[in-house]
């Protein structure tokens, strides 16, 4: 049992979960670089001259982010629509993260509401949760703001939206995330943050970025929540 997690959960009233990483690998069966390349094709069909570094960008969310900074809202909407459709297809072959489900179940058994706060589209997240019989256990889904990629994490806005909707104070919420954008967004929102380092290289990076606790398995979090429930 991770003592740091036990101490953390003693002051927590709600659990916020990033989706891609802590809950599942959304692009496991429909690879992210393929989706990114399809979004680049959308840009070209819109008449955008695509720089070489963007043409080879493997992260579809980064393609959307960079499209948004270019300032043509109709092009951003076209890329957004293509990404939403791709994400809806991707969740059909998404791979559940080991112990991701157990974390959600254990949090609810501990009396904590669970919200998904994702840079993926809310429709895709909701479709995954429904397909995996988790929809009733997740109180709220806050997805990517439509065609406004500047509002994605690390912008704290979606995290604070979840906090407000759950009726909790930021200091009594914890976000579990697997990226720097999660940790930076949580810090800015004033919520605690657990860094899920699903690759060894992330451990030190997350610690330096200010994660309250860093784990290498969602099982550590599930065990802490189960232990917390047993002690209360």
Topology, element by element:
Blueprint: H1 3-9, E1 14-17, E2 24-25, H2 32-45, H3 52-55, H4 60-70, H5 73-90, E3 95-96, H6 100-109, E4 114-117, H7 122-131, E5 140-142, H8 157-166, E6 173-177, H9 180-189, E7 192-196, H10 202-209, E8 213-215, H11 218-230
Parallel strand pairs: 1-4, 1-6, 4-5, 6-7, 7-8
Antiparallel strand pairs: 2-3
Overview of this protein structure:
The chain is globular, with a radius of gyration of 18 Å. The protein contains 11 helices and 8 strands. The chain has helices at 3-9, 32-45, 52-55, 60-70, 73-90, 100-109, 122-131, 157-166, 180-189, 202-209, 218-230, and strands at 14-17, 24-25, 95-96, 114-117, 140-142, 173-177, 192-196, 213-215. The model has no long low-confidence stretch (mean pLDDT 97). Helix 5 packs parallel to helix 7. It has a 6-stranded parallel sheet, with helices on both faces. It has 232 residues and is α/β, with parallel strands linked by helices. The chain folds into 2 domains: 3-26 and 94-230, Rossmann fold; 32-92.
